[in-house]
Amino acid sequence: MKLTILFDNVHHREEMTPLWGFACWVEPEKEEPWLFDTGSNGRVLLKNASIAGVELNRAKELVLSHPHWDHVGGLDTVLELAPSIRLYLTESFSKLWIRDLERLSGGVTVVGEKPMPLFDGVESTGMMAEIGEQSALIRSSIGPVLLTGCAHAGIVEIAARATEMAGEPLALVMGGFHLFRSEEWEIEEAIEGLVALGVRQVCPTHCTGERATEMFRTAFGEDCLQGGVGAVVEI
Fold first, then answer.
1. Does the CA dihedral 188-9-126-140 come out positive or negative?
2. What is the rounded CA–CA span in Å between residue 80 and residue 85?
3. 17, 47 Cβ separation under 8 angstroms
4. Are 77 and 44 a contacting pair, CB within 8 Å?
5. Is 157 helix (H, G, I), strand (E, B) or coil?
6. pTM score > 0.70 for this model?
């Protein structure tokens, strides 16, 4: 499986444009590629995808973690390129918006508070926290992989639910950890929590924050993977 970060405020690949937000292109081992979130700007998403050699029109599924602008801003661009794409949203999206998206896409699946399967090898954690955010649990040959948008519910709490769903420790936790405003002790607790859950690798990016990212690098060493726009994680 190959995961390519197409949108991120963290700089990684020089020729790509960093803006606040997150989007990740997922190429499973056997199934068709799909997209997790769309960043905050469609033109930038499209430019970064082109540089990465990613054809967004190949995506058959799009999982949107929550309706904040920095995760849904590129949605119109994706729908223009792939009008038959199926969307996986949460109940925290406006009912009127969901109704409109049903007409503009290949269909909409709405996720509630309980975990549920989405498509081949991918499950939703269900909505967590007041913001109603979902994360994606991906089954891979090396073990379960967790993709998070902003982790508003707390990265440890989300990882704990995903671990329970998977029935085994997570091989990788990747995405925004929402620690950019956290105190050092809060970051230390998050690191300790993931270690206690048996998480093998992490790839903190987007809203994790520089201080927290550096602390994760210290704690996980080589098992803290580099995030940022253009970063590629191959499993």
1. negative
2. 10
3. yes
4. no
5. helix
6. yes
Q: At what angle do helices 184-196 and 210-220 cross, to 10 degrees?
A: 40
Q: What is the CA radius of gyration of the chain?
A: 16
Q: Looking at this protein, which amino acid is placed at residue 148?
A: T
* Residue ranges of E strands in the chain: 2-8, 22-27, 34-36, 61-63, 86-90, 108-111, 116-119, 122-124, 136-140, 143-148, 172-176, 201-205, 232-234
CB 90 within 8 A of CB 84: no
Sign of CA dihedral 13, 17, 19, 22: negative
Please state the length of the chain. 235
CB 151 within 8 A of CB 177: yes
- Model confidence at 30, pLDDT cuts 50, 70, 90, reads confident
Q: How far apart are CA 213 and CA 218, in angstroms?
A: 9
pLDDT tens digits, 62-98: 999 999 999 999 999 999 999 999 999 999 999 999 9
The tokens for 14 are 């020089």
pLDDT in tens, 185-235: 999 999 999 999 999 999 999 999 999 999 999 999 999 999 999 999 998
Q: Rounded CA gap, 230 and 45, in Å?
A: 11
Q: Where are the alpha helices (DSSP H) in the chain?
A: 42-52, 69-72, 75-81, 95-104, 155-166, 184-196, 210-220
